[in-house]
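Give me structure tokens for this 318-residue protein.
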Amino acid sequence: MKDKDAKIFVISMKNISKELQYYGTSNINNINLLKLIYKYAKYFTDYKCLQAVDKMVNYLQRSDRRICMEFTYTKGYSYEYNTVDISEVNTAPTLSNVSLTADDTGNNLVITYSDMYGGYYDAEGTDPGAIIISTIPANGTLYLDGTAISAGDTIAYDANLEIEYERNSNNAYSTSFTYSVYDTDTQLPLVSNTATVSLTVEEVSVENEAPTIGDLTLYADNRATVTITINDILYNASPEYSDPEGNQLDAIRIDVIGSSNAGAYYYYESEIEVGAIITYDDIVAGAFTYSAADLNSIQTDVIEVSIRDTVNLEWVSS
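Here you go.
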């Protein structure tokens, strides 16, 4: 092929035949040049010309391994041109969808190598390569080494891969993201199908903390009966009743009755015994009372109680 002929073909690239069987993506200039070579090879069987074309193809293959063309020597000084379907060289790997759960602790979900590559399959047995993040979750954020991941990001292959998912609400919800994986074929790396990672995010369960309350001091006249009110217990104690979650007092339990008490404590007019439980509603109703002894001196009577809130329901000593 003379130089002037080559220039003619280059000028005419836009009109080159589309019969070239080319699969995948490549450098556009290489594709156009391949089309030119294809047209030239179809109409010339001269040994020297075809030998030159063969060298051009070999050159392109060195610059772009995805180009699959070959010339086969048949007889005499003739060459037979063949295109090669890329699927005969390599097939794309496949991925399975993944389902994961972010539990009720509120901690970040760690998405591991096994999660991302566990569903990888390659017919040729080629190892997996880089991950391409196609879409990111509509709710929450993915992080790699502390940096937020964006759609289109490439994540290099790493057998110790850990991606963190951070929720954006304490409520329960579902979200997802998609990704694909390249194989590591040396001639033509191909990308898998797009797989979906479905995320079930559970409602954060906050452990209820117990309430606290201090000592309560009350004064009663000789032979007087005093009603112990809910305000006495909640607000007159020092320190007063407190619950981290703001839960209401549920009940008090009598744990100790002082052995030297001169007066007596009553629950609905029956003298209280150790272990008695007096509910919030009973206290509001005036069922918890104290009757002072008939003494002309100062006397101190003592009881010790435990309390519980309406959620925790575990007794806590005051």
